[in-house]
Specification:
The complex is a heterodimer of chains A (256) and B (285).
Chain A (H helix, E strand, L loop, with lengths): L4 E10 L2 E11 L4 E6 L5 H8 L7 E8 L3 E4 L5 H10 L1 E4 L3 H4 L6 H11 L5 H14 L16 H13 L5 E5 L7 H18 L2 E5 L3 H7 L2 E6 L2 E7 H6 L4 H8 L5
Parallel strand pairs in A: 3-8, 3-9, 6-7, 7-8
Antiparallel strand pairs in A: 1-2, 1-4, 4-5, 9-10
Helix pairs in contact in A: 4-5, 4-6, 5-6, 6-7
Chain B lengths: L12 H16 L5 E2 L13 H10 L5 E6 L6 H13 L3 E2 L8 E5 L12 E5 L13 H9 L4 H14 L10 E3 L3 E3 L9 H4 L5 E6 L4 E5 L5 E3 L26 E5 L6 E5 L2 H9 L9
Parallel strand pairs in B: 2-3, 2-4, 4-5, 5-8
Antiparallel strand pairs in B: 1-9, 6-7, 6-10, 8-9, 11-12
Helix pairs in contact in B: 1-2
The chains are: A alpha/beta (256), B alpha/beta (285).
Chain lengths: 256, 285
C-alpha cells in the first residue's frame, strides 16, 4: 500500500540553530500521527515544512496525489502546491484568528475554499456551509455572524469546518486545543475524532498535550531539540516510554 | 495661451516615454496592473493625478480633449483639468463626446457609444480589486499571478448573505479575457456592460498607487457573479426629468426641503444633446 505521505530526511536550520533534523516517517491513509515535545523542540517547524509554509533545507515530502500518484511537494510548482493546500490538504492553526477571515461571516469563511476551487452557485455554497456548521455543532442561525462574535471554542470549530468542506485527505493540526478550557477541549476532541473516523482522514497533530494524542493519535513521535527521539504506537510510547526524555514527559503529566 | 515654461502637456518627454511604455504593456496584457513611476502633479492625490499623467502621455497637439467628472463637464474637477491642459498643451477642448479624441473621466462612461480612434482615460483611486479583502500587496500580486480569485466571490457572497442580492453598486469587479480580475474604477455597475467590446481604447491611471492598466478595443470583459444571482446593470427606476431618456444613468437631485426630488441624466452632454434635439422630460421648463 502506498503511504499517503512519506517524509524523508527532512531538516531545517535557522542559521546555526537546528529547527528540525533528519526526520523521516510514513503516514498511511486513515492514520493519525501525533507529534509531541516541549516548546522549541521543532514540532511546529516540522509541521510547517510538511505543509509547505516553510522551505526545508534538505529532504523530501512525498504526497500521494489523486491525479499523478506520489509526488515530492517541495519540487512541485507553486500553483500546484497551493492548489493542493486548497483541496487535498487542510491546516488547522492553533489560533483560530490565523486560520479564519475575521471580517467575513461564518458562511463566507466556510464557502471560501469552495469558491476558490470554482464553485459559483450561491445556493449550493450556502447549503454546504449550513451542513458543515451543523457538523461542527454551530447553530445554523449563526451563519451570517462574523467569527469575532464567536467564543474561542466555536471559532476553532468553525476553522475546522472551513478546512474540511472540500473533503481533504490530509489534515495538519497545530495545537488545535491550545488556549481552550478543558470541557471545550473535550468536546472539540470528541468532534475531531468523529470527523476523522467518518471521513477516513489522515492527520498529523502537533501538540504538547499528551491527553490529545492519547485520544486521537494511532502513532506518536516524540521530539527533542529538533530530533525525533522516540516513535511508535501511541499506547506503547505512553505506557512504556524508552527514551529518558519520553519518560520525563510522561511523568510530568499531573494526575488528578 | 500656452506657457512656454512648460513642455507640451506639462510632463517632460522622458516621463511621457516611461508612461507610454507602461500603457503599451498594459494594452498587451489587458487587465494587468503595470507599475509606473508616478510623478508629483500640481494637484492633490485623489483628484485624478493618475488620469492626468496618462492623458498627458497620450495627448498630441491635434487632439480634442474632453473631461467629465461623474458624467458632468461643468464640475470643479472637470473644469480644472480641462483648463490645465488648455494652458499646458494648448489643445482644443470640447464637451461633446463624439467630437473628442481623448476623454478623461471620473466615475462614468459616457452614455453615447464611443467609436474607434477615441481614447477613454479613467481616474482610478484604488486599482487593486482585492485590496479590502487582502491587505498584503505581496499576497494580492501572488493571487493575480496564480489566478486565485476565490476571495473576490467571498465578497459577493457576503453581499448576498447580508442584503439578499449583490449590493456592490460601483467599482464592480470584472474578469478580463478570462484572466485578470480588474477594478473598473468607481464607475456605477450600470456602466460595466459598456466596458466589454468597446470600440475605444480604455486606459486606467492610478497616480497615488502608481499603477496603469488598460483595455484594448473590443476586449471581452465579464462582470463576476453567481449562477443563481446573475450580474444586473442597475439604475434608478425613472426617466430623466429634463430629456425624458429612460436608458441613461440617472442622478437623484433633491430640489426643496419638502421631499421634492428629480432624476436627471448624470451625463450632461448626453442630456443636453437630447434636449437640443427636442426631447423633453416631465420636469423640463
Amino acid at each position: 500500500m502506498t503511504p499517503l505521505l512519506s517524509v524523508q530526511g527532512l531538516s531545517k536550520n535557522y542559521g546555526t540553530h537546528i529547527g528540525c533534523a533528519d526526520v523521516s516517517f510514513e503516514l498511511h491513509p486513515g492514520e493519525v500521527m501525533g507529534i509531541v515535545g516541549e516548546s522549541g523542540s521543532g514540532k511546529s517547524t516540522l509541521l510547517n515544512c510538511m505543509a509547505g509554509h516553510l522551505r526545508p533545507d534538505t529532504g523530501e515530502v512525498v504526497f500521494d496525489t489523486r491525479a499523478d500518484g506520489p509526488r515530492d511537494t517541495l519540487t512541485m510548482s507553486e500553483p500546484e502546491r497551493r492548489m493542493l493546500s486548497r483541496t487535498d490538504w487542510a491546516f488547522v492553526h492553533q489560533h483560530a484568528r490565523d486560520g479564519l477571515r475575521m471580517g467575513v461571516s461564518a458562511g463566507g469563511n466556510v464557502g471560501e475554499r469552495l469558491m476558490a476551487v470554482g464553485e459559483r452557485h450561491y445556493g449550493d455554497i450556502r447549503d454546504k456551509a449550513t451542513d458543515w456548521l451543523a457538523r461542527v455543532e454551530i447553530n445554523a442561525d449563526r451563519i451570517d455572524d462574523r467569527p469575532d462574535t464567536f467564543s474561542g471554542g466555536m471559532q476553532q470549530r468553525l476553522q475546522i469546518a472551513r478546512n474540511l468542506v472540500t473533503g481533504p485527505r490530509l489534515v495538519f493540526m497545530d495545537e488545535p486545543t491550545g488556549g481552550l478550557d478543558v470541557s471545550v477541549q473535550a468536546r472539540l476532541l470528541d468532534l475531531v475524532r468523529g470527523l476523522v473516523r467518518d471521513m477516513g482522514l489522515s492527520a498529523i497533530i502537533v501538540t504538547h498535550d499528551l491527553a490529545v494524542v492519547r485520544l486521537l493519535a494511532d502513532r506518536l513521535m516524540v521530539m527533542k531539540s529538533g530530533h525525533v527521539v522516540e516513535a511508535g504506537l501511541t499506547d506503547q510510547v505512553l505506557d512504556d516510554p524508552q527514551h529518558a526524555y519520553s519518560q520525563l514527559l510522561v511523568s510530568s503529566v499531573l494526575q488528578v | 495661451m500656452t506657457y512656454q515654461a512648460y513642455n507640451f502637456a506639462y510632463l517632460d518627454e522622458q516621463t511621457k516615454r516611461m508612461i507610454r511604455r507602461a500603457i503599451l504593456k498594459g494594452l498587451a496584457i489587458p487587465g494587468y496592473q503595470v507599475p509606473f513611476a508616478s510623478r508629483e502633479m500640481p494637484m492633490p492625490y485623489g483628484w485624478g493625478t493618475g488620469g492626468v499623467q496618462v492623458s498627458a502621455a497620450v495627448l498630441t497637439p491635434l487632439d480634442r480633449f474632453k473631461v467629465i467628472d461623474q458624467g458632468a463637464d461643468d464640475t470643479t474637477n472637470a473644469v480644472s483639468i480641462r483648463t490645465f491642459f488648455e494652458r499646458t498643451a494648448g489643445v482644443e477642448t470640447t464637451t461633446t463626446t463624439s467630437d473628442a479624441s481623448v476623454i478623461q473621466t471620473r466615475h462614468r462612461i459616457p452614455d453615447e457609444a464611443l467609436s474607434e480612434g477615441q481614447i477613454l482615460v479613467y481616474q482610478v483611486p484604488i486599482p487593486e480589486p482585492l485590496r479590502f479583502l487582502e491587505p498584503r500587496e505581496s499576497e494580492t500580486r501572488k493571487m493575480h499571478e496564480l489566478e486565485e480569485y476565490g476571495l473576490m466571490h467571498v465578497k459577493l457572497y457576503e453581499d448576498i448573505s447580508r442584503h439578499g442580492h449583490i449590493a456592490t453598486s460601483y467599482a464592480y469587479p470584472v474578469k478580463v479575457v478570462g484572466r485578470y480580475v480588474m477594478d473598473p474604477s468607481p464607475i456605477p455597475k450600470f456602466d460595466n456592460p459598456k466596458l466589454g467590446d468597446m470600440a475605444a481604447i480604455q486606459l486606467f491611471g492610478a497616480g497615488r498607487e502608481q499603477r496603469i492598466y488598460a483595455l484594448p478595443p473590443y476586449t471581452e470583459v465579464i462582470s463576476l457573479d453567481f449562477e443563481d444571482h446573475p450580474f444586473e446593470a442597475s439604475k434608478a427606476d425613472h426617466s430623466c426629468g429634463l430629456c425624458g431618456s429612460d436608458t441613461s444613468y440617472l442622478d437623484e437631485v433633491i430640489i426643496d426641503d419638502a421631499g421634492g426630488r428629480m432624476f436627471v441624466c448624470s451625463d450632461t452632454d448626453y442630456c443636453n444633446s437630447r434636449q437640443v434635439a427636442g426631447y423633453k422630460g416631465k420636469d423640463a421648463a
